[in-house]
Amino acid sequence: MGEKQASADGDRRIGRRALLIGGTAAAVGSAVLARDELARLWWRAPGVEKPRVQGAVDFRGAQWVAASDANWRRADRPDDYGIDMVVIHVTQGSFASAVKVFQDPGHGAAAHYIVRKDGHITQMIRELDVAYHAGNRAYNERSVGIEHEGFVDRPEDFTDEMYAASARLTAGICARYDIPVDREHIIGHVEVPGTDHTDPGEHWDWDRYMRLVRKVPSASA
């Protein structure tokens, strides 16, 4: 599951950071950084931000259940941050417990999606936005996070229905953002630099999963 404390990857709401940068960039010689940060705020101008429909989902068939807004950052991806990665997680608990903690503002983390053992998919954060799921700010900004119900030491939790549904979800994400379907761009949480997580663990069948993703007609080559 995602990192509990967002401070671990320096992810904080961009408005506060932009104000701090605006007042100090020249003094510390970080003008280039300031310009880059401000350039990513263009979409906040009136009439520029993409329209949002309450309860809308990015994956057809997913159920919308909103995460606490303390566990993600509003953005306008892929225009302000390019998306080139999918990160696979395991909840280390039940589906219900994952939903509960992602709705808890004190948890400090959440993923975009949760896949249940029976293949049901719940979306909790729009792909437009940055979810605090990877424990690494740069990876959060460039990725979509998918949680899977279960425990890393229980291979029986990774059901046929879960693999199939998750593969369709990942294939759709890859097609949407032109992400290559390979292990450099579809990774486990354990592979994120600086993380102390081990998911999805040794029982996650990567060969099977990647075959399933590639079989989906919309998958990127």
Low-confidence stretches: 2-8, 12-29
Question: How would you write the strand order of the largest sheet?
Answer: 1-5-4-7-3-8
Strand content: 5-15%
Q: Which bin fits the share of residues in helices?
A: 25-40%
Assembly context of the chains: single chain
Task: Give a verbal description of the structure.
With 221 residues, the protein is an alpha/beta fold. 30% of the residues lie in helices and 11% in strands. The protein has six helices and eight strands; from the N terminus they run ααβββαβββαβαβα. The strands form two sheets. It has a six-stranded mixed beta sheet, sandwiched between helices. Strands 2-6 form a two-stranded antiparallel ribbon. A hairpin with a 5-residue loop joins strand 4 and strand 5 (121-123). The radius of gyration is 17 Å and the shape is globular. The model is unreliable at 2-8 and 12-29 (pLDDT under 50).
What are the main properties of this structure?
disordered N terminus, 221 residues, alpha/beta, 6-stranded mixed sheet, globular
Summarize the structure.
The protein is α/β, with parallel strands linked by helices. The chain is 30% helix and 11% strand.
